[in-house]
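User: I'm writing a tutorial on reading structure tokens. Could you give me a worked example: one chain, its sequence, then its tokens, then a sentence or two explaining what the tokens reveal?
Assistant: Sure. Here is the example chain.
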Amino acid sequence: MLQIVLKNYGYYELKIDGQFGPASKSALKIFQTENGLVSDGIIGKNTCNALFDKKNVIRSDSNNVLLNTDKIQKSSESLKISQQKLKELNLYSGAIDGINGANTKNAIKEFQKKAGLSVDGVLGPNTLAALEKGSESYITIDNSQPSTTVNTESSSNSISTSSALDLRNYNPSQPCVDGYVDQNGIWITDPCFYPVFVYRFGNTAQVNSQNELDAYLGDRWSLEKEKTYNTIGPVSTINYVNGVHSPLNGLKMPSNANNLIVLGIKNDNNVNARPQSGPQDADAVFEVLVEGGMTRFINVFYESDTSYHGPIRSARPTDPTVLRPLGGVLVASGATGGLIPEIIDIGVPVITDRRPEFFRISTRRAPHNLYADTYKLKQLAISKGYKKVDNPQPLFPWGTPNYSLWSLNSYIKLKFSSQTSTMWTWNGNTYLRTYYDAYKGSSTGVPHTWINSSGNSSQISADTIISLFCEPYIHPLQLPSVKTVGEGRAIVMHNGKLLDAYWKRGSNLDPFHIVDLNGNTIYIPPGKPWISLVPSNFSPSFDN
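And here are its predicted structure tokens:
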């Protein structure tokens, strides 16, 4: 929506992809500058009002988003900002006057060359986005050494393992060519197009034409390199024995447990899906944000089982990131087009709606009536060769903690969105779940219940509440998600006590490390956990 509005006003010229990336932020900041607002790249109240004030909005001309220095020389506030940044990079020595003179154009071209952009002297969205990063956007160019490439599944994709662009085919003095894929599946380069790198899942590819770039971006590659972390490795534990204790909750497993493989089953949390069947039987539960401000559960099974789990709904981008360290399999009722291959690329197999493992119940309407049997699902997963490990690593640092660091606490309230919030309250024996759901028109404190195939029902409970505050983002498929690699705040509650700490992970292969301010391991007491992946832009409330 934002990109469309900015494009209509002339501030955004790139493809509409729904991502609020560097180019969108730069366009927004220019819009704010030209309309007399604080240029912070944040969509606040004043900015929103200006965006929708079609009558009085100041639209862009050639001196704003596309600041071509061949146009009429007119002073521009946004160009003054760019001149100042170019001056700080020692690329511009003229006056900060907002005039598109020859010195400004030469400085822009020099910056574009250093940043690996198309050298045209135009302050377009890509150049403005790179200028925001300053010298960090510079690349190393080596004309004498071509980039090393490795083949991927598609012969037309060339994945670079070098930080240097291959400029052998770049020659703007030659006739320009519209890039296309030839009969051998190879992209034909455009000599007028200055090559750029695109990034996805830790891979880097060089593209050599606008058409090739559009194709990569359409396949959810990005012009912005992902922030990378180093894999940390397994967590420390106390009195934990692999194969004896559960990796999901640290408890000792029954000797006859059906612990063949880890399953993560998506559980609907729509108002029409309650009460659910499955959370009460799972060994651990994750709660994740989805579209509409609602949440869904990932009920994780290893040593436990149920023949009646549902309703099952579709997969989301966050799901595989919590199952990968367990060698787990994701069970869902399909996904948005293109997402399942992405999940499989992460290393998590997917089982979707099929018979006899899945079945429909007659007491509810679709899509809230799809259920499954975990016994049959585990057998299917094993038969398909999905088992990666004999003993999955512990998901958290299970062990008896130093309770002197914990404080007495009776409840925590977690906000996932303006539509959804949950509360966990200690009753002296366990934590009980209540919720607020704007779609239900409810007040806070509504008991959240489960139900089994016999019709028995009770309030959802857990031994341990682990709240991990994660950076929210919008996936390229327009799906609200949170990042579970990196670090953030962690609040752990057990036995009426609370510890405010931190979580960290270096990759999707890592379990969740819980640490104190100095990086020392904090042990989590064994017990069935409910793990809430809360968007970090919302703060919790609790007593202490």
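What the tokens reveal: Confidence is low (pLDDT under 50) at residues 62-74, 141-162. The chain has ten helices and 33 strands.
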